[in-house]
């Protein structure tokens, strides 16, 4: 909605987003823990105050979290990604890895921040950037740990969206990565061969 201000220019009124309500048995994503399931919505009394909370269970961590309903959205709790976001995440996996030339400790912090952001696209970026084919330089131990953590986080949401088991979700993600990276390597090899041939022809001509 836009109203006119004193100078005649449109004055926009910000609309506040309605809080997202979650239901019992609904699968959700919580930034620090990934995919979980709302077991129930209940009231709890803490220091004489009554709070309505979501009781969320995370099977992978064998833990249960109580999230105040009024703070859930602020904490980053969200529904599973839709098909469009999932498609964008898969497209992200096919992109060129972006590795900053900074100290590993700083990059590791950035990767951890992305993994715990609750954003499927950012998690996919970590999976893409840390993935290696067998013929590529081997990952360090800490790189491998972060890769497996990001892959696990992405795989669990893919499995929940697709309604498939974790094995099938992992296969889907890995197949996309392997196909895209193999194509990129073959393209780079052909380009290098063409460049070498051109240099050789130039030297022969000279």
Q: Which structural traits does this protein have?
A:
single chain, alpha+beta, 7 strands, two-stranded antiparallel sheet, elongated, 206 residues
Please explain how this structure is put together.
This protein is of the alpha+beta class and 206 residues long. The chain is built from 5 helices and 7 strands. The chain has helices at residues 83-93, 104-115, 120-130, 141-162, 166-205, and strands spanning 2-4, 10-12, 27-30, 34-46, 49-58, 63-68, 78-79. The chain has a 5-stranded antiparallel beta sheet. Strand 1 (2-4) and strand 2 form a beta hairpin. Helix 2 (104-115) runs parallel beside helix 4, helix 3 packs across helix 4 and helix 4 (141-162) crosses helix 5 (166-205). It is elongated, with a radius of gyration of 23 Å. It starts with a strand and ends with a helix. The model has no long low-confidence stretch (mean pLDDT 87).
Distance between the termini: 72 Å
> Overall 3D geometry?
elongated
- On the 0 to 100 scale, the average pLDDT is 87
Structure classification: alpha+beta
The helix-strand sequence is: EEEEEEEHHHHH
* Percent of residues in β-strands: 15-25%
Number of helices: 5
Helix content: 40-55%
Can you count the beta strands? 7
Strand order of the largest sheet: 6-5-4-3-7
Radius of gyration: 23 Å
| Low-confidence residue ranges | none
Question: For the report, how would you describe the main beta sheet?
Answer: 5 strands, antiparallel
